[in-house]
Specification:
Layout lengths: L10 H9 L1 H11 L5 E5 L6 H11 L2 H4 L3 E2 L6 E4 L13 E6 H8 L4 E2 L3 E4 L8 E7 L8 E2 L8 E8 L3 H5 L7 E8 L14 E3 L2 H10 L6 E4 L6 H9 L5 E6 L2 H13 L5 E5 L5 H4 E2 L13 E2 L3 E6 L18 H22 E11 L8 H10 L2 E3 L18 H6 L1 E3 L10 E8 L5
Parallel strand pairs: 4-7, 6-8, 12-13, 12-17, 13-14, 15-16, 17-18
Antiparallel strand pairs: 1-3, 1-11, 2-3, 4-6, 5-10, 7-9, 9-10, 18-21, 19-21, 20-21
The structure holds S-adenosylmethionine (SAM).
The site of S-adenosylmethionine (SAM) has 19 residues, from helix 8 and strand 13.
Length: about 425
């Protein structure tokens, strides 16, 4: 179809140059495909069996048989995604939704009025339409697109519930705009359901807290915590006993952590707005002084376990319908920036404590290379994780074969059909001043 644009645009060439043709091809083949939906269970209030049963009752008929507890990670319930299903969009009136809306639709969301950007003049209530995501993010709300040549990513066909007037000339139009009954990918829409019982989390992210393995009663830090996916998981693994400190940079980000902790009924999480890289501002030489301090102060070498899940190039995220053309400079900058979090973590971690480093990218510079950096720079050694679902680390980035086997790497084309991800577990072997 001539109006379908290849997701990634010019970034194909950059990816080839950076990672080689084979990786670039596999990468873009999987980028716009949604992985299976995974729900992590709040085992403090329910069981995976109960969640699986409730989900079977909620998901579309075609997906019921695929709901299962993951054998390799028993606090995760998985619902498979069907697709791509061959649909024909010929002769249908076209509608364009925003790129973000398109990505949500690939994960099973409905199409609501605010997400619709443009539609042909033929749009009327009740007609069948073909829906495209505007991967260029260039359409202005309410545009007419009769020329049939605006590039888009095809999402499927559906029935229009609103016309142009209802969509574009009604202040704050809301509600379902199109029922996508012939989606290219069929995924369950689980947002907002079973709120106290599940947290929607990609499979590799649900592995991370098991790798950290925090114990009840311990003193644990999550340095880049918002919206709190891994923090809430840690609190659950700790039986909601102990102290769990969570940092993030923005005010709203901290509110998100608090909201998620509250909805899951967790009480041990103390979230702070804090730039984790500026450790001189929040590490107290005289001991811990958190009460009333702004920013709060923490004692050097005091935490039993620390997670560093820093901002990264996010090359692992899927489905994804856009790509930054600043890719190559971003990759280098991110890798260097992440080292600041590692340094701060080593200063805060007890000798003998556990540090886990994770990213949602496939970029070896932010993954294996930063592990090498950490091993060379700090008193740290790699450890075999208790839970291992990923593959070994890549060659040629400074890790020995034995070290590559201790880290885990998830690739979007890997056997678990997950987003791309990386995770390594270290033990601190001595003091660090
Ligand atoms: C990969 S996300 C964390 C996801 C989170 N761990 C989870 O599982 O829900 C990275 C986070 O780092 C935060 N961040 C960025 N710079 C930071 C800084 N200097 N200090 C603390 N947090 C920072 C971002 O706001 C973002 O929420």
């Amino acid at each position: 179809m001539d109006s379908v644009q290849r997701v990634g645009g010019d970034a194909h060439e950059t990816m080839k140059r950076l990672f080689g043709e084979e990786v670039a091809l596999k990468y873009f083949e999987h980028l716009a495909r949604p992985p299976p939906t995974t729900a992590r269970v709040n085992t403090l209030v329910t069981t995976p069996e109960q969640v699986a049963e409730e989900l079977r009752a909620l998901v579309p008929e075609a997906l019921k048989g695929s709901v299962a507890i993951l054998e390799s990670l028993p606090d995760v319930v998985v619902v498979q995604t069907l697709g791509p299903i061959d649909r024909s969009s010929s002769n249908l009136s076209k509608v364009w939704v925003s790129r973000k809306c398109g990505e949500a639709v690939l994960r099973g969301a409905n199409i609501f009025a605010p997400g619709v950007m443009a539609a042909e003049t033929s749009l009327a209530v009740g007609i069948r339409v073909a829906v495209y995501a505007d991967i260029t993010d260039s359409l202005t709300k309410g545009s007419f697109k009769n020329e049939d040549n605006h590039p888009g990513h095809y999402l499927g066909n559906g029935i229009a519930k609103m016309d142009r007037k209802m969509l574009f000339h009604t202040e704050r139009a809301h509600g379902i705009a199109i029922v996508l009954d012939e989606a290219v990918f069929v995924a369950p829409s689980l947002n907002g359901i079973m709120e106290d019982k599940i947290y929607l989390q990609n499979l590799p992210s649900a592995v991370v807290s098991h790798v950290l393995d925090p114990q009840p009663g311990e003193y644990v830090l999550d340095m880049c915590a918002s919206p709190g996916g891994k923090t809430t998981h840690m609190a659950i693994l700790m039986g909601d006993k102990g102290r769990l400190v969570a940092f993030d940079k923005g005010y709203e980000k901290v509110k998100d952590i608090e909201r998620n902790a509250k909805r899951l009924g967790l009480t041990i999480i103390q979230a702070h707005r804090n730039d984790a890289t500026k450790y001189r501002k929040y590490i107290s030489e005289s001991g811990e002084v958190t009460n009333g301090a702004n920013p709060p102060m923490f004692a050097r070498e005091s935490f039993d376990r620390i997670l560093v899940d820093p901002p990264c190039s996010a090359l692992g995220i899927r489905p994804r319908l856009e790509f930054s053309d600043r890719l190559s400079t971003d990759l280098q900058q991110k890798a260097l920036f992440q080292r600041n979090f590692l340094r701060a973590a080593v200063m805060l971690l007890k000798p003998g404590g556990v540090l886990v480093y994770s990213t949602c990218t496939i970029n070896p510079g932010e993954n294996e290379s930063n592990v090498r950096y950490a091993l060379d720079e700090f008193p740290l050694k790699l450890e075999k994780p208790k839970v291992r679902l990923g593959e070994v680390g890549v060659e040629g980035m400074g890790l020995s074969d034995e070290e590559r086997e201790m880290v885990q790497r998830f690739e979007p084309w890997g056997r678990h059909d997950t987003p791309g991800f990386f995770c390594a577990r270290f033990r601190k072997t001595g003091e660090y001043q």
